[in-house]
């Protein structure tokens, strides 16, 4: 994601760049067109997760303070079929983009479309990696830009922006006619979970995630073929494939040992598959004993078995995300839990004939609540329109343009990532990872899960559940039972902390 890069690596240096590198690389995979990626009405239930970087205290306090005189708002323009949001056709538009792995060209191209539609309007477009330090003072002064790609290492904390009423509700954009079809609302052109991801409390939508990431288990189809195996759908099959790989000198798994919060990219959707969506919702809601659900126990024990049987690449707990991906790309391990940015991030070490593929997590057996194919996919590259923007309608119109088929196709073709627009891949030569991601989404249909823990409670998810919990278990230093007890205590502690804003699935 060109932007959210920071996001998942908050802890990880690559957090910042991660999103950036990754989202941009986010190649979802659904090889064939993008046709069957679940219709909007099926999606209502798949609240998405989202990547949000760790907030800094300077921003938290700065956002809370007022000061400065708010800028004058542009007069509303006349609403017409071609201008459904009532943009003032002479009002200036200021658009600030995160300068990350996705580059600037896709946004610059979309700006040209805006300028053509409103030739009397001046558009100020700029890009920076220092979103927070550049824009925080302007939020305080009441003079923010009209549209911001809030991503990267210096991403402004979303929970704080929402909590302090610093953002514009994007519902008018979502209910506006889509750019390509006046008979279809923008919200009905979006992928699973995008609308829900932008919500915090209630129906208002504060964020529009533009890129779309598929999380799952990534592997080389060539390597799997060399074992004369298919991707395992049950855990017994997974263990058998790993045993066969081990005999040939290849580990079954590796992962970012220094950043073990990558493991949930496959572990959380597995928990959802085994126990149902409600188990993940209870975890997100910080409900008492949510982590003690039998599905959590079963999935932790399954992953622990990989470690106990020697199916994890030796030394993995000491590897960072790049080192683990490099070892995997070189064939030292068969499977790695990751997001679709891995294709771009590993491009320089991945052999040309690697034949990259992604699959939804392996389940336990036929007793699982959800079918094989249940996957975690969600938006990245969060765009926001500030509440005190002078030209909020213009900011939303620029997003409406970006959510057109042409702009979406332009983004995917240039940065090898899917967008929030549910389509836009026809006629584009997709990379192997992107093709595989699209196919995985087709298989998943409505069975897309989107845990919110990682954007509602960053420190809990990364440092506590990830590093202190799952990381210790996978290094063999704690049993599943000990780990679950520890993680439940962390969750309870967060739930009782009145200094933390708490969110719940609606």
From TrEMBL:
<dbReference type="InterPro" id="IPR022386">
    <property type="entry name" value="Chitin_NgcE"/>
</dbReference>
<dbReference type="InterPro" id="IPR050490">
    <property type="entry name" value="Bact_solute-bd_prot1"/>
</dbReference>
<feature type="region of interest" description="Disordered">
    <location>
        <begin position="1"/>
        <end position="40"/>
    </location>
</feature>
<comment type="similarity">
    <text>Belongs to the bacterial solute-binding protein 1 family.</text>
</comment>
<feature type="region of interest" description="Disordered">
    <location>
        <begin position="64"/>
        <end position="85"/>
    </location>
</feature>
<protein>
    <submittedName>
        <fullName>N-acetylglucosamine/diacetylchitobiose ABC transporter substrate-binding protein</fullName>
    </submittedName>
</protein>
<dbReference type="Pfam" id="PF13416">
    <property type="entry name" value="SBP_bac_8"/>
</dbReference>
<keyword id="KW-0813">Transport</keyword>
<feature type="compositionally biased region" description="Basic and acidic residues">
    <location>
        <begin position="9"/>
        <end position="31"/>
    </location>
</feature>
<keyword id="KW-0732">Signal</keyword>
<dbReference type="InterPro" id="IPR006059">
    <property type="entry name" value="SBP"/>
</dbReference>
<feature type="compositionally biased region" description="Basic and acidic residues">
    <location>
        <begin position="69"/>
        <end position="79"/>
    </location>
</feature>
């Amino acid at each position: 994601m060109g932007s959210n890069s920071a996001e998942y690596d908050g802890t990880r240096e690559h957090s910042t760049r991660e999103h950036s590198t990754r989202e941009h690389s986010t190649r979802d995979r659904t090889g064939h067109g993008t046709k069957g990626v679940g219709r909007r009405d099926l999606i209502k239930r798949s609240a998405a997760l989202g990547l949000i970087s760790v907030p800094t205290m300077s921003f938290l306090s700065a956002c809370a303070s007022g000061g400065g005189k708010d800028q004058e708002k542009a007069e509303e323009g006349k609403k017409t079929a071609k201008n459904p949001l009532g943009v003032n056709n002479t009002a200036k538009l200021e658009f600030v983009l995160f300068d990350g792995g996705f580059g600037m060209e896709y946004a610059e191209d979309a700006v040209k479309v805006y300028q053509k539609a409103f030739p009397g309007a001046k558009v100020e477009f700029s890009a920076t990696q220092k979103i927070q330090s550049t824009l925080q003072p302007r939020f305080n002064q009441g003079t923010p830009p009209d549209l911001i790609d809030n991503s990267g290492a210096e991403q402004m904390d979303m929970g704080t922006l929402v909590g302090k009423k610093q953002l514009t509700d994007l519902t008018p954009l979502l209910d506006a006619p889509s750019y390509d079809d006046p008979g279809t609302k923008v919200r009905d052109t979006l992928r699973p979970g995008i609308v829900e991801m932008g919500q915090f409390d209630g129906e208002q939508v504060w964020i529009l995630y533009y890129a779309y990431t598929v999380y799952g288990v990534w592997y080389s189809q060539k390597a799997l073929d060399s074992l004369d195996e298919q991707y395992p759908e049950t855990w017994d099959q997974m263990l058998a494939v790993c045993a066969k790989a081990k005999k040939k000198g290849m580990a079954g798994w590796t992962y970012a040992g220094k950043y073990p919060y990558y493991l949930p990219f496959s572990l959380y959707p597995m928990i959802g598959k085994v126990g149902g969506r409600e188990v993940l919702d209870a975890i997100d809601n910080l409900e008492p004993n949510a982590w003690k659900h039998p599905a959590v126990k079963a999935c932790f024990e399954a992953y622990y078995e990989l470690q106990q049987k020697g199916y994890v690449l030796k030394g993995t707990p000491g590897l960072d995300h790049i080192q683990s991906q490099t070892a995997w790309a070189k064939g030292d391990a068969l499977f790695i839990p990751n997001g679709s940015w891995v294709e771009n991030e590993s491009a320089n070490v991945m052999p040309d004939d690697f034949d990259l593929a992604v699959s939804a997590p392996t389940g336990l057996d036929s007793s699982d609540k959800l079918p094989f194919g249940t996957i975690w996919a969600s938006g990245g590259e969060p765009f926001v329109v500030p509440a005190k923007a002078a030209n909020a309608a213009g900011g939303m119109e620029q997003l409406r343009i970006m959510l057109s088929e042409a702009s979406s196709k332009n983004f995917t073709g240039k940065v090898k990532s899917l967008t929030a627009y549910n389509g836009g891949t026809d006629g584009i030569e997709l990379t192997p990872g992107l093709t595989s991601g699209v196919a995985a989404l087709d298989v998943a249909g409505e069975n897309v899960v989107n845990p919110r823990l990682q954007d509602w409670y960053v420190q809990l998810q990364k440092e506590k559940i990830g590093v202190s919990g799952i990381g210790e278990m996978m290094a063999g230093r704690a049993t599943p039972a000990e780990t679950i007890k520890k993680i439940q205590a962390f969750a309870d502690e967060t739930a009782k902390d009145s200094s933390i804003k708490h969110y719940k699935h609606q």
